[in-house]
Design a protein that fits this description.
- The protein is of the alpha/beta class.
- Residues about 260-275 have low confidence and may be disordered.
- It has helices at about 5-20, 25-35, 40-50, 60-70, 75-90, 100-105, 105-120, 125-140, 250-255, and strands at about 140-145, 150, 155, 160-165, 170, 175, 180, 195, 200, 205-210, 210-215, 220, 225, 235, 240-245.
Length: about 280
Amino acid sequence: MTTPTDPVWDAVRREAAASAADEPLLASFLHMTVLRHRTLEAVLSFHLSTKLATSVMDSRALMELIDEALQQDNALRAAMRADMEACYVRDPACDAYSTPLLYYKGFHALQAYRVTHWLWGQGRKTLALFLQNRISEVMGVDIHPAAQIGCGVMLDHATGFVVGETAVIGNNVSILQGVTLGGTGKESGDRHPKIGDGVLIGANATVLGNIRVGEGAKIGAGSVVLAPVPAHATVAGVPAKVVGNTGHDAPALSMDQHFDGDEGCGVCPVRGPQHG
C-alpha cells in the first residue's frame, strides 16, 4: 500500500531540519516541536497544548483533546493546511510553511478557535468557553466558539482581534490586527457581521451589527462599518462609506490596501449572499 503524501508536512520537516542545523540554540526546540512527530496534526496538538496549558489543565490533557478534534474532523485538518497556505502566499514576511506553524500567533489562535468550535458543536460548551478565555489570555485574540469561520483565512498579527458569537467569516479572507466583528448593543439572537469570501479588512477596523460585507469587498484601516457593504466595494471612514471598487475578485489574496478604482463611484451591485 502506498503511503499518502503530505507536501505541506514534508516541507515543514525539511525547513525545521535546516533551521536546526543553521541555529543550534533552537535545535532542541525544533526537535521537540517538529522533528520527533510523525504528522502535521501531532505538531499542532503539541505546540498549541504547550502554549495553552494552565495549572488546572495540563499540556498532556490539552494535547489529547486537540488531537481528538483533529482526528475526528477532516475539515479541521483541511482548514489548518489552507490557513498555512494563506500565510505563506499572502504574507511577504513568511518565507516558509513552518513559520506560521511555529511563530505566528494569529495562526495559533485561529487553529485553537477551530478546536473550541468543534467542542461547541459537540455540546461541550463549558470547555469551549474555558479555552476561549485561555486563548484570549495567551494570544490576545477573542473569538467566540460559536462563530463560523471558513478556510484559507489569514489573521495578520492578530493582536486585539475580536469576533462575536453569531459572526460568520467566509473563505479566503484576510484580517489585520485590532479588528472587531461585534454587536451594536444588548440585543440577543443573530447580531454580528457576516463577512463574504475574499474580503480584506484593514487594521483596527470595526464592523458592528448583523450586516453583510459582500464578497470581494475591502474595508479600510480604522473604519467603522455600520451598514451593509456591497460586493467588490471599497469602504472607508467613520462611519464607513463606499469610496470605490476593489478592482479585484478577492482583495484578501492581493493584500493591496490602496484605494484603487473610481473614487466616489457610489454603491456597487450586490452579487448575492456570501459564504456562510
